[in-house]
Design goal:
It is a single chain. By secondary structure, the protein is an all-alpha fold. It folds into 2 domains: 130 residues, 434 Repressor (Amino-terminal Domain) (Orthogonal Bundle), CATH 1.10.260; 98 residues, Orthogonal Bundle (434 Repressor (Amino-terminal Domain)). Helices cover 64% and strands 0% of the residues. Helix 10 packs across helix 11. The longest helix has 31 residues.
Length: 259
């Protein structure tokens, strides 16, 4: 996440309000004191997602207020509308909007898109993309789940069974990863990411808002349709090729070329 004036201001106020030193904050977030100093001085302009998650535990409410609550309040004031009016016209629950206004929870990307569509993007600004994903991971135990898998698979318009075939894994494996009831195996993550045409990090975090390709730009669904139309024997060959690592593929290509 880019460190803008809002985030650096939040960090400074957090230190002042809680009478903490930079060393205290560094210890709480498992980072070096020098790193905190560079964040505050503007010498570092980007915040790793893991550090943002650690900070989020301590600055959750001011972060929500600065990036979501205040902009929403300003937009409502500008249009002279109340919560019920916004909820009715944006297709949202009153409680969901109130939770944003009260700084209780970061809205998911879909909710913020609905609000921006209602108010207009020139009235209600967007927020750093990383913030939409941060509230989906509540504990350290939860980190490591493939939180973005289900959404990316559905965006590709394929079933769990189809993805399992493409990746060379069991359908139950895909299902358990989507439900976050099983810790992903590193090899499975690589196979699934390759099958979906995304990076492994996108499977953990999801396609961050602003980075999602248009459905037409991701040819997975088109390619899958072509594969389904092939003879069964050819489909089995493609599935076997998908399980090979880069080194094995190179060896196979050399053999085929020589042949």
């Amino acid at each position: 996440m880019e460190i803008d004036s809002k985030l650096s201001g939040i960090l400074r106020r957090y230190l002042q309000d809680n009478n903490l030193t930079q060393a205290d904050l560094a210890q709480r977030c498992y980072i070096k004191q020098a790193t905190v100093a560079r964040y505050l001085s503007g010498k570092i302009h980007s915040l790793p997602f893991s550090t943002l998650r650690a900070l989020y535990t301590h600055i959750k409410k001011p972060l929500i207020i600065e990036y979501f609550s205040n902009p929403l309040k300003h937009a409502m004031s500008r249009l002279s509308v109340d919560v019920k009016h916004v909820a009715d016209n944006a297709g949202l629950n009153v409680s969901r909007i109130e939770s944003i206004l009260n700084g209780e929870k970061i809205p998911d990307y879909g909710t913020w898109i609905k609000l921006r569509k209602y108010f207009g993007e020139d009235v209600l600004p967007g927020a750093p993309s990383e913030l939409y994903a941060i509230d989906t991971v509540k504990t350290e135990k939860g980190w490591g789940n493939l939180l973005g898998l289900a959404g990316i698979r559905k965006r590709a318009r394929i079933s769990q069974s189809q993805l399992a075939d493409l990746a060379g894994v069991n359908q139950r494996t895909v299902s358990s990863y989507e439900l976050c009831i099983r810790k992903p195996h590193e090899k499975h993550v690589e196979l699934i990411a390759r099958a979906l045409g995304v990076s492994p990090m996108e499977l953990y975090q999801g396609l961050l808002p602003g980075n999602e390709p248009h459905p037409a730009e991701r040819p997975l669904d088109i390619n899958f349709t072509r594969v389904k139309n092939l003879p069964e024997e050819d489909q089995q060959i493609l599935k076997a090729l998908g399980k090979l690592n880069p080194s094995q593929k190179k060896k196979l290509m050399r053999k085929l070329t020589k042949g």
